[in-house]
Structure formats: structure tokens, C-alpha cells
Amino acid sequence: MSPRTPGPTAPTDAAPTTLAFVESPVQLLNVLEWAHSAGATGPAGGLTVVVLSPNDPMTRGQLRRMAQLARDEGLNVRWEEARGGAAAPFHTIGGLTGALRAADRIVIGDPFSRYVQLLLTITRARSLVVVDDGTATMEFVAQLAAGERLVRWHRRGGRPGLRDLAFAPVSASARRRLTPGGKRTVEIFSSMPIESAPDGVRVTVNSFAWTRERFGPPRVSKGADLVGTSLVETGVVDPDRYVEAVRTLSRAHGATRYFAHRRESAEKLHRLAVETGLQVVRPDLPLELIARRGPIGRTILSFPSTVVHTLPLALAGTEVRVAVCDIDPAWLTEDASPRAEGFLSGVTGTARDVHRLASVASAPGSAAPGSAAPGSASATQGIAATA
Length: 387
Hints:
The longest helix has 16 residues, at 57-72. By secondary structure, this protein is of the alpha/beta class. The termini are far apart. It has 13 helices and 13 strands. Helix 1 (25-38) runs parallel beside helix 2 (57-72), helix 4 (114-120) packs across helix 6 and helix 8 packs across helix 9 (266-276). 36% of the residues lie in helices and 17% in strands.
């Protein structure tokens, strides 16, 4: 490795057969699941995982832990400080060009990433694999099938900015490479409910077999745990509404811990701890591994997110119940994408093996968000099982 990347490295003498690019802990977890399924673990598997490290400290910490788990599985891991200054992308891409052109297969975790899209324009690989980056996989498949430009669901509906327009040719090229044709094959390795895929795209089910084999079963405690979401940080949900919903949901179900999403702000988490009394936990690994290792509550409460699809798979065979609470349209901000309500409803509606809860809502004429008394009739009226 070049001295420009002070993170953990595992250089190899020959160009790898398969290159996997990850930017988040969940992506790396799903690369491990894919490698386990495809028999690509160990030195003979010819898989090198390239971590395009973000700057966020919590994400970096989880990625370092996941990188060590990947090494324990015998995979090569190459850590790139891909965002460590203005010149970092040029150094990273320049250092990867040879390996990109020599690779037979490319595995990516986020087809919406501009970094990844740029790398896809360099590779000559005939085999492309997309592993889950959460529920965004569902939107990616829909956009690929419709021949649309690749845009994250919470950004749809707005006008493309100057940077979007400048990057459009690269994004269009990446979309073409992600479309099967001729000798080029595309596989989607997913735990998401993909009902139909574009012609020629092969869908392989991610059942979290590696996670279940390596960890657990967990010790299950009484009570409930609540899973956080970054919908406030992405501008989709109003923060006051969100805090009130967390407070109401936790009081109604006896939740004691709040597992924070890695993108949640410190200010919001502090407010949640003060106003709800929940113990805020910042996991050092993806929640699927945390839950599988335990201890974990008998009920896991969540708003629409990736975990309502992945946790039932990771916790299969245990007595843990996953319950999902819908997002009330009234919680959405004025700046939320027109796609937000439908997308979030789809995330909940397509979840398998979960207990559905109605959205948390105040009774007509009740106090404004943030002022209802915790546990009061008005605060809990909207919580009802709809399974």
C-alpha cells in the first residue's frame, strides 16, 4: 500500500480476480455474506475488499471492526483514505486503475455512489455483483428496470444541481455497465424483497447464513430495544415529530435501549436520551451482528429501515420478534422528496416475518409534537397492532 493510506492494509503480489468496493459497514457485511455464498473466502477465493473510507468517525470505527472480521475469513483488505483531502480521490483512483482493469469481477455495495460510478468507468470486468446497501437496493432495481438515471430515493423530485449535470455522463456510463448485455453479467445479492428484476439480471437471496454460522444464538432479555434511523438527518422527517414518536413508542412497549444509526447526530441522540430516558447505544458493528451476538430484547422496535428486512433473517430460529412502526405522513418535512411517503410505506409493506404497528399519532386536538405527556392516553392512542 502507498503511505497515503495509513489504515489497515493487506497488499498482494498479483492483481486480484475479484475486487469489492465498500463504503459502509453494512456493505462490507454483505460482501462477506456474498463471499460465503459464492465460496470466495480464503486466499484461494481471489477476493480483495477495497474500503473507500469515509470521514465520519463512527462509520470508520465500524468499518475497521468489519475489516478485521474480513481478514479473519482470509480475505485481502485494502484500506483507502479515499476522502482524506482534495487530492485523495485522484491518488486512490490512480492507485486502483491497474487492479480495476485486471479484475474479472467487480462487487459493489452502493451503485448510487459517485465514487463507485467513476470506478466502474475504468474496469473491464465482465461480471458485476451488487450487494445490499440497505433498502436503496429496491430503488436501484426499479430505476435500472425503467432505464432512469440513478438517484437516491430521498433526493428524487428536486432539480439536478450543477454537480449533478456535470457528473451525468459518468452516471450514465455506470448505469450502462450495470445493465447486462453481450458477455457482461449482472448479479444482485440481496435480502430485500425484489419481486422482479430487469431482463438478464440474476437475483441471489442473501439469507445471512454467514452471520448465523459465526455468531449466536443470542441471549434474549425481557423487554424491548428500539432501532434508530437517520431520516431526520436526511431531511425526510421532522426532528420534533421523531423525538415524540420515539418517546411514545418506547413507553408503550417498555423499551430501555436505543441503538443509534451511525449517521445520527450527537445533538439529536443527546436530546433523545434526555427526553425519553432511553439508554443510547452506539454499536461498533452492524446491528445484525450486534443482535446475533446478544444480549438483545425479546422485541426489536423499528421505523421503516433496512433492519426490518435483515434482522428476521439474522435472528431466524430465535424467539426475538421484530416490530415495525409506520411513518405518519404528518411527520414528513416540507423538503421531503415526493417519493418519501410511498417509498417508506413500501419498505414496511414488503417486510416479511415482522409485526406491524400503526404509526404513532396523537389524538385529535392533542398537544403539539413534543408536548404530549409520555404514556398518556393521547400519546399512546395511535399505537395499535395491525399484523
